[in-house]
Design a protein that fits this description.
By secondary structure, the protein is α+β, with helices and mostly antiparallel strands. It folds into two domains: 71 residues, no CATH class; 113 residues, Roll (ph1033 like fold). The protein has six helices and seven strands. Strands 1, 2, 3, 4, 5, 6 and 7 form a seven-stranded mixed sheet that branches. A hairpin with a 6-residue loop joins strand 4 and strand 5. The longest helix is centred in the first third of the chain and has 24 residues.
């Protein structure tokens, strides 16, 4: 947890602050306060609501910036409002049959490998019929993809609690890859969002960039 504590110290003590006012759903505020309470109990220190909110915004921006860079070669720093379809090469593919989701070691072991499930993840309804296989990128210390699995027929169950999210049930045990797909020179932030690819690419890939 030392990395998280370092980020808190940086945010609370060194960054310039500007006031921002906007409306937030009351249920999200209740969840933020509860998470802050738990985090404070674990770390025996004050982790205020605004620090948690800044973490969430930063993670979201990292995810979107990685998506723009990976799929459109657009950098937030250099973009000047000059988007034209023919100017920026899109990396979005339509012939995918596999999706890679991010995960942590504990969840990967307990849920993916033992329960043969993965939940709860966001996926567009129009993509459900296309996605036949699921793989999990596990963060540190593994920092790679080691297994994939076939999705059970009718294996998508919508969550009653989380809108637009699904429980995915796997068909049998996950299958180990011949070699781990390393993170390589790709930012880990790009794996915060689902990465669509093909099983053929997954089986041949050496690094995440190959997907």
């Amino acid at each position: 947890m030392s990395f998280a504590r370092d980020k808190i110290e940086e945010r609370l003590n060194t960054r310039e602050k500007k006031q921002l006012t906007f409306n937030v759903d009351s249920s999200l505020i209740e969840r933020m306060d509860r998470i802050s309470e738990i985090f404070n109990d674990i770390n025996k220190r004050n982790y205020p609501r605004n620090a948690l909110l800044e973490d969430a915004i930063e993670a979201y921006l990292d995810e979107i910036e990685s998506f723009l860079k990976d799929n459109y070669q657009i950098s937030a720093e250099s973009y000047r409002g000059d988007y034209e379809p023919e100017k920026y090469k899109t990396g979005i593919i339509d012939d995918f049959d596999t999706v890679v989701y991010p995960g942590y070691q504990d969840g990967f072991q307990e849920v993916f490998l033992r329960e043969h499930k993965w939940y709860y993840v966001r996926i567009r309804k129009e993509n459900i019929e296309k996605v036949k296989y699921v793989a999990i990128y596990v963060g540190r210390p593994q920092s790679g993809i080691t297994h994939y699995a076939k999705v059970k027929k009718d294996g998508y169950t919508p969550s009653k609690r989380y809108p637009n999210k699904y429980l995915i049930e796997l068909e049998g045990e996950p299958i180990p890859l011949n070699r781990k797909i390393e993170l390589g020179n790709v930012s880990a932030a790009s794996l915060r969002a689902p990465k669509y690819t093909t099983l053929e690419k997954l089986l041949q890939a050496k690094t995440v960039a190959d997907l």
